[in-house]
Write a structure and sequence with these properties.
8-stranded mixed beta sheet, binds uridine-5'-diphosphate, binds magnesium ion, 2 domains, Spore Coat Polysaccharide Biosynthesis Protein SpsA, Chain A, alpha/beta
């Protein structure tokens, strides 16, 4: 691993997707600007380093605020998407548009320790093209969120997907890693699964995850589950998933019937001869078949969406370069 010289600092772009974040935005702008100013003074990054906010079709004042900040603070840049496209697409829009040599992606809500960005940049100068932010302590997450998230990382790793345990989308990528990411044209985005595929040398930096500074999570359970399924199959097609769910319910139902039939047979005199052996397999096989079709459907749906090759986001406005 070759050490890159600190003599010539590089341009940093921090990329922050925002969906209805009016409550946290001003604090995020204050803290981020302060950090970038400090890093410029420490000669870690260049003066033209900037902070990019991507408005993911917010319904509140998020965009108006970003627009105003960008007029008074030359470090602040804004990208407005034409509609809500989801966190992963908004993030990609930012990563593909921002012009820095080093790109750091982070959430708007200050849950991730922003001072770690300094350590990430230092790790880049030590020769890493990708630096993953890894949550070491999750005590502020609810027990439910913590167990489901960790269960998900374990499951996806068991399925053979190369993801970094407890790493979400807080990471630094070098310019050449971003260029490599741009070559990945898939519509079903799961960035934390795609980045390890790029390769290059990488390392982790650990931090404690804190509570949201303000506002509510924009990732309700439903979105979390959808991201998890996309991560495993790289796809979501709701009607097909419904088939799988239906199959599973029928399968469970057949197990209950089995128990009931068993009970009737052993403990009562009401058993009808031949009934159980003909009815049970119907439910059991029907359930398993629907479940299987649903799973196959997940992958067919994935091919369907990819073959359409629709744009992953549409940019409505970018604030002027000052
Ligand atoms: N976000 C987004 N589009 C969406 C949902 C969320 O850009 O459709 C952004 C959100 O503004 C935040 C980040 O994604 O910056 C992570 O969301 P959040 O903090 O609500 O998720 P959690 O930390 O609860 O998982
Ligand atoms: Mg959050």
């Amino acid at each position: 691993m070759q050490n890159k010289s600190l003599e010539t600092p590089l341009q940093l772009s921090i990329v922050i997707p925002c969906y209805n974040e009016e409550e946290v935005l001003s604090e995020t702008v204050t803290q981020m600007s302060k950090l970038v100013d400090e890093m410029i003074e420490e000669n870690l990054v260049t003066k033209n380093s900037s902070i990019w906010f991507i408005d993911d079709g917010s319904k509140d004042k998020t965009w108006q605020m970003i627009d105003e900040y960008s007029q008074t603070n030359t470090k602040i840049k804004g990208i407005k998407l034409s509609r809500n496209k989801g966190h992963q697409n908004a993030l990609l829009a930012g990563l593909e548009t921002a012009d820095g040599d080093l790109l750091v992606s982070i959430d708007a809500d200050l849950q991730d320790d922003i001072t770690v960005i300094r350590e990430m940049v230092k790790q880049y100068y030590k020769g890493n093209d990708v630096v993953y932010g890894v949550r070491k302590v999750r005590t502020t997450d609810t027990v439910f969120k913590r167990t489901t998230a960790q269960g998900f990382y374990t499951l996806i790793q068991k399925l053979g997907v190369d993801v970094v345990y407890n790493h979400a989308d807080f990471r630094l990528m070098s310019r050449r890693a971003i260029e490599a990411l741009k070559e990945h044209k898939e519509v079903n985005l799961f960035l934390r699964g795609m980045v390890p595929l790029i390769g290059f040398s990488s390392t982790n930096v650990e931090y404690a995850r804190t509570e949201r500074f303000a506002g509510e999570s924009k990732y309700p359970l439903k979105k979390m589950l959808a991201l998890a399924v996309d991560g495993i199959t790289s796809f979501s097609a709701y009607p097909l998933r419904l088939i799988a769910g239906l199959g599973f319910s029928i399968f469970l139902f057949s197990i209950f019937i089995s128990l009931w039939v068993f009970y009737t047979l052993v403990f009562t005199d009401n058993a009808v001869p031949g009934w159980a052996s003909s009815v049970l397999p119907m439910y059991l096989l029907g359930g398993i078949q629907l479940l299987s079709i649903g799973v196959v459907g997940e992958y067919v749906g994935k091919i369907y969406m990819e073959s359409k090759n629709r744009p992953r986001y549409v940019i409505e406005t970018i604030t002027n370069d000052k």
